[in-house]
Write a sequence for this structure.
């Protein structure tokens, strides 16, 4: 509290200086009228004691006791605390208007209060040192300050003159105007602005064996080995535990430490950078910082997307398979059986006749294809047969890509027709087919340099052995070439 700004008092029971309109009318700000101004007292004032400021205003001696500022919360508005409120009175007033629990000593300044301070009330500032001393202010007079100090010009001495005459006329308590006191009030009463003791508190020990009576007195004490808990009961003494923790609860109502401004204490007792809650598009569930975006009404549950939905209870009573009623499963059936009304029943016969791969109709498989092949209609299919880039030889599917003319022969490596006199033996054997054995239904073609489909030899005669001799004149080879050319149509090879 200073000469120009009164401290904000909390509705939760923070100590408040009594205030009346008459006292306020005589002294500026939070000053209290103490009587007539003594000789030599000026508006700039002086320090009557370490914590008491006095000054003269309109002929009235005004006084402020700066020690009352020690009751102001010292925690940052962005730092959780077991005590109610925070050091920035403007931010605190905003938060407590939104959430009165934040200014209730029963609840303290929790993570929800911190979140409201950051998102709704302008953020946080560093807490200044409490102004509990009398000192010279930049405004040009003596006021409550964090440290005692005198007028640097020396014009206004710091200590009030010894010529002050104590004045306790009609007063039971409070200041005598000279740094002394006119008396103190008993438990349950406080001193008002006029020096009278007035009752402010009714002691209450109902249901309590120990602890505070709410008015500065005690409801009793506990025996050795026992301690008083928050409910006023004597319980076994608690041993604080802070192993591995730098902040948070010590398990006995105390703290293991506090975090710096901009940090919060996690449930594991570690300080971490302040988390920004995120509830966009959510009406319930986690806000990402340990808080909640809201809760669902009775009978509803919160989904992972933060939406409330009708609660579904899975039902698998009497079922070993099938739907559980909530999108889940009551189980699956072994191969060869199927699920009927929640029971696994037999009767499915796998069908793999004529199939190399694919489904057997009962949840099993008829086989798998080798690498590079795919299963289509129960058959494994590989690459297409082709004669692209080939003049002669096999197309990859047992057909011929073409024949070489007179004086040329098929190079089995490149499958191109080359001059017979310059290529040497590239046909993989004798160029006239001598000694070549062909499969049943095929004949040797010297032009193709391979066995080809057909029942006629190159000389036009029937050759049931499937082999033929060297080349011969006549139209049979060219007729055979035409027939085989038609068979060289591209098709897919069956693997």
């Amino acid at each position: 509290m200073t000469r120009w700004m009164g401290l904000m008092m909390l509705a939760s029971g923070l100590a408040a200086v009594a205030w009346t309109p008459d006292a306020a009318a005589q002294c500026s700000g939070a000053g209290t009228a103490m009587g007539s101004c003594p000789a030599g007292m000026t508006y700039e004032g002086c320090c009557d004691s370490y914590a008491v400021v006095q000054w003269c205003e309109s002929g009235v001696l005004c006084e402020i006791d700066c020690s009352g500022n020690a009751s102001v919360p010292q925690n940052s508005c962005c730092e959780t605390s077991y005590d109610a409120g925070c050091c920035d009175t403007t931010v605190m007033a905003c938060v407590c208007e939104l959430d009165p629990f934040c200014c209730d000593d029963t609840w303290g300044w929790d993570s929800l209060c911190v979140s409201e301070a950051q998102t709704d009330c302008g953020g946080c500032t560093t807490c200044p040192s409490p102004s509990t001393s009398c000192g010279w202010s930049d405004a040009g007079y003596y006021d409550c300050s964090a440290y005692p100090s005198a007028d640097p010009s020396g014009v206004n001495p710091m200590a009030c003159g010894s010529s002050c005459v104590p004045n306790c006329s009609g007063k039971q308590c409070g200041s005598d105007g000279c740094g002394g006191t006119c008396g103190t009030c008993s438990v349950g009463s406080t001193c008002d602005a006029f020096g009278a003791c007035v009752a402010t508190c009714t002691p209450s020990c109902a249901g309590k064996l120990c602890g505070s009576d709410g008015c500065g007195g005690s409801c009793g004490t506990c025996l050795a080995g026992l301690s008083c808990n928050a409910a006023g009961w004597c319980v076994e003494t608690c041993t604080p535990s802070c192993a591995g923790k730098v902040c948070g609860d010590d398990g006995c109502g105390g703290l293991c430490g506090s975090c710096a401004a901009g940090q919060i204490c996690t449930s594991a007792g570690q300080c971490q950078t302040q988390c920004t809650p995120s509830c966009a598009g959510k009406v319930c569930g986690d806000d990402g910082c340990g808080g909640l975006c809201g809760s669902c009404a009775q009978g509803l549950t919160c989904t992972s997307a933060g939406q409330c939905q009708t609660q579904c209870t899975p039902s698998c009573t009497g079922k070993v398979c099938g739907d559980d009623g909530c999108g889940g499963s009551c189980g699956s059936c072994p191969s060869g059986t199927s699920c009927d009304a929640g029971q696994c029943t037999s009767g499915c016969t796998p069908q793999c006749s004529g199939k190399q791969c694919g489904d057997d109709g009962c949840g099993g498989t008829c086989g798998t294809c080798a690498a590079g092949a795919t299963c289509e209609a129960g058959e494994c299919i590989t690459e297409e047969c082709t004669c692209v880039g080939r003049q002669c030889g096999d197309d990859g599917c047992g057909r011929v890509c073409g024949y070489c003319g007179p004086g040329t022969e098929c190079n089995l490596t490149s499958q191109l027709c080359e001059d017979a006199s310059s290529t040497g033996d590239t046909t993989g054997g004798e160029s006239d087919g001598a000694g070549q054995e062909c499969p049943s239904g095929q004949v040797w073609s010297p032009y193709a340099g391979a066995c080809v489909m057909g029942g006629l030899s190159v000389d036009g005669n029937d050759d049931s052995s499937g082999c033929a001799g060297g080349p011969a004149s006549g139209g049979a080879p060219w007729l055979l070439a035409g027939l085989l050319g038609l068979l060289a149509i591209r098709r897919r090879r069956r693997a």
